[in-house]
Amino acid sequence: MKITAEQIAEVLNGNIVGDSTVEVFKLAKIEEGEEGSITFLSNSKYNHFLYTTKASIVIVNKDFQPLHDVKATMIQVDDSYQAFTKILEYANQIKLMKSGIEQPSVLSEGVEYGNDLYLGSFCYIGKNTKIGNNVKIYPNSFVGDNVIIGDNTILFAGARIYSETIIGKNCVIHSGTIVGSDGFGFAPNTDGTYAKIPQIGNVIIEDDVEIGSCTTIDRATLGSTIIRKGVKLDNQIQIAHNVEVGENTVIASQTGVAGSAKIGKNCVIGGQVGIVGHIVIGDNVRIQAQSGVGKSVKDGEIIQGSPAMTYNDFSKSYVYFRKLPNIVKDIDQLKKSNNEI
Q1: pLDDT reported for residue 42
Q2: The one catalytic residue among 48, 68, 241, 278
Q3: Does residue 118 share a domain with residue 72?
Q4: Do 140 and 105 meet the contact criterion of CB atoms below 8 Å apart?
Q5: Is residue 68 annotated as part of the catalytic site, yes or no?
Q6: Fewer Cβ atoms within 10 A, N terminus or C terminus of the chain?
Q7: CATH at residue 207
């Protein structure tokens, strides 16, 4: 799809310097710009590329004053970085503008769906599932029985949504993610074997949630595993049964959250964090990468380490840890001196 500088300037509320009729059809970095591409300049370190880029349109800040002639058409805006982000979002919407039901695919008995559904090839939709408007389900995805999917939600290729899962509006679930698989529930028998505890709950994902590739969210034993509104989960995360993740919390890759843990809202959790079950993480908590959290955490705390402690205590302790060989040496010398007295 081609779009002119005049149309872009209208969307961005910007001023055109150059040819308003020039057309673009792709996005590029300023140093890699080609004819027909649009790029942006926001970092002064890249100013010199403006005079050599082959991009047709460059978005710049209104206060930017070029030192040499610029071949590209410039669109002046208040914030070039934010403006280009807006263009990226617009381009992504166009790319995802698919509709229709491809074959082969299966829509089971009792399925209901809204307007502009896209259902890719080799998808399976289970019985009595309800799908909202403008939902996109990419090829090779599985959606079980009695699932609810809200408006404008996207399931990328190979997503697996087990039965009874509820997914809100404007969610994105990336490839390979599994939502609603059985929680890890086993009871030990007297002979050393384990009996499986039926997992009959479900998963609830509220509005505006994004879940990265190959993440697993287990269904509850009873009740619901809940991912609250606005949560962002990275790739390769494990959320166990009956966990609750609070609004607008962000969790980085390879983190594992054990069963029945409750995480508050507006938390930031780094990569490879381990959180034990049945504890409460307060609101606005920051957990540094590779921390092991074994007890509840109060609102607003910043913790690090394994076992995790407050960030300040960890920093002080780490300084002592690095000096430990010298500290031991000093202690040994003191002991020797005392013995000689």
Answers
A1: 92
A2: 241
A3: no
A4: no
A5: no
A6: C
A7: 2.160.10.10
Q: Of 293, 258, 276, which is closest to residue 183 (Cα–Cα)?
A: 258
Same domain, 291 and 307: yes
Burial of 260 (0-12, 13-18, 19+ CB in 10 A): buried
The residue segments making up the domain with residue 40 are: 3-95
What is the pLDDT confidence band of residue 312, given thresholds at 50, 70 and 90? Answer: confident
Q: Please report, for the domain that includes residue 16, its CATH number.
A: 3.40.1390.10
C-alpha dihedral (99, 105, 109, 111), degrees to nearest 10: -20
Please list, in sequence order, all residues whose beta carbon lies within 8 angstroms of the beta carbon of residue 226, skipping any fewer than 6 positions away: 203, 204, 206, 243, 244, 245
Is residue 53 pLDDT above 70, yes or no? yes
**Is there a domain that residue 339 lies in?**
no
Across residues 229-256, what is the average pLDDT?
A: 98
E strand or H helix that includes residue 47? none
Dump the DSSP string for 74-89.
EEEES-HHHHHHHHHH
